[in-house]
Amino acid sequence: MKRFAQLFAQLDQTTKTLKKVEHLVSYLNEADDDDKLWTIAILSHRRPKRTVKTSLLRIWASEIANVPLWLFEESYHVVGDLAETIALMIPAKTQQHTKRLTDWINIIKALDKKDEDYKKAVVLDAWSGMDYNERFVFNKLITGGFRIGVSQKLMMRAIAQYEGQEENAMAHRLMGNWTPDTITYDELIRSENPLDDISKPYPFYLAYSVESEPSELGEISEWLLERKWDGIRGQVIIRENQVFVWSRGEELVTDKFPEYHSLGLDLPNGTVIDGEILPFADGKPLTFNVLQTRIGRKNITKKILQSAPVILMCYDLLEHDGKDIRNLPLRERRKLLVQLLKDHDTKGICQLSEGVAVENWDAAAVERSRSRSLMSEGLMIKRLDSEYKIGRKKGDWWKWKIDPLTIDAIMLYAQSGHGRRANLFTDYTFAVWDGENLVPFTKAYSGLTDKEFNEITKWVRKNTKEKFGPVRSVNPELVFEIAFEGINASKRHKSGISLRFPRMVRWRRDKPAKEANTLNDLKKMLELYG
């Protein structure tokens, strides 16, 4: 446990990818197979479920810290994290535990059906033999809230490096419904897996945002222009009559999109298509909000399939007749893709992302301006002679997105942030006018500088009207410009509206609250762009 807690601290203290991988590989070299397996499970969101109520942990911690519960709660609101608050407040350890991560997880799991006195005795004994880092991790595990700044891809890179395997092969091994209770480390990571090769995707080629006027790219005839569709970028692989669907994050999501399963019969083996998993009905794209209704669901029901249907909007062909063709120019890959879709009936599942035919860059700008009405985010600009490269490379692929929508809103509530911003008010709720009343409609926490967050925090402390736990109601005076990518009707929000990717782009010091936008302004945007 001590070594896992050290790993947690190391990963939390750096933002450098290579350093995180280095720490993970070092840990894998030292941990036994049981701890390796549980570490992989925890980092891939297979945490043990909560077995002790957080309300009990608060009471027990305040008792042994010898502070009133109200003072513990106030401290918790300042720190912003229960696990950290407990680890900081309880007395120093009086003994030394030497149990492994696996041992502690088994102890935590065994608490599920035990009575309160038994749970208390186990937890207090655990705290008494742990240092700060160990306590913090233990508290995260027992509350079922363990999260760490390590992506699935980064973890797979570390394991692949440690085991001497390829990352994409490792990705497939870590998919599925396995748990450390149903599989061993050897079975998960080192056993022969016949699907490793046939399921393997290609690294995605990513575009840069246009940095100047597109006309500076040269003759428009040298480029393919496409709509930038608003779905989930993915690869569909057909090999040995099996279908594999990978997201851009290199997550295997085949079971999430049963619409694609028939492609194993409709398309020839040795086919890999790069495209957009796009919500689509009645011959036109739907909003990303529709796709969100099925993201993250474990069971894709018939009702969901009907209310949120998807197609594959096909961008590129990466493998043809079992041959990697990424080194061919885009114009040739495109011809092969067009012919493939012409020769094989996919029953509407695969649709070609059509090129946008324009004669010059001014006409391209006009097409870009039409994007929202077509449920598109802008235009993609791809050099027709380009190969399909790996990762984000400048020069051949560009994205020319439309400008975000914006609205001026009034801060109504403020809440403390997390981590290094736990002592600052950084998470805000915003409202617009509805007659003489203010109606909350969105939250945002990014887009300002550290200096601005510090200034606003001082203002919040001086202008608090009421406290609701960590949330403060403030005088409705500060106005901010909120940018967002999309707007949709919502039954869950009092305003009847939800925004996509809201963020603060400007503190409107120049604007009094009475001049902020109205709910009617939002509704007009909904009519135009929703």
Descriptive overview:
With 530 residues, this protein is α+β, with helices and mostly antiparallel strands. It has three domains: 2-142, Orthogonal Bundle (DNA ligase i, domain 1); 205-401, D-amino Acid Aminotransferase, Chain A, domain 1 (2-Layer Sandwich), CATH 3.30.470.30; 405-529, OB fold (Dihydrolipoamide Acetyltransferase, E2P) (Beta Barrel), CATH 2.40.50. It has 20 helices and 22 strands. It is globular, with a radius of gyration of 26 Å. The model has no long low-confidence stretch (mean pLDDT 91).
- The percent of residues in helical segments reads 25-40%
Give the percentage of residues in beta strands: 15-25%
CATH fold annotation of the largest domain: D-amino Acid Aminotransferase, Chain A, domain 1
Terminal-residue CA separation: 50 Å
CATH architecture of the largest domain: 2-Layer Sandwich
| Secondary structure tally, helices | 20
What's the structural domain tally?
A: 3
Mean pLDDT: 91
Estimate the global geometry from the Cα principal axes: globular
- Per CATH, the class of the largest domain reads Alpha Beta
CATH superfamily of the largest domain: DNA ligase/mRNA capping enzyme
Structural class category: alpha+beta
* Largest sheet composition: 7 strands, mixed
Pick out the low-confidence regions. Answer: none
Radius of gyration over all CA atoms, rounded = 26 Å
List how many beta strands DSSP finds: 22
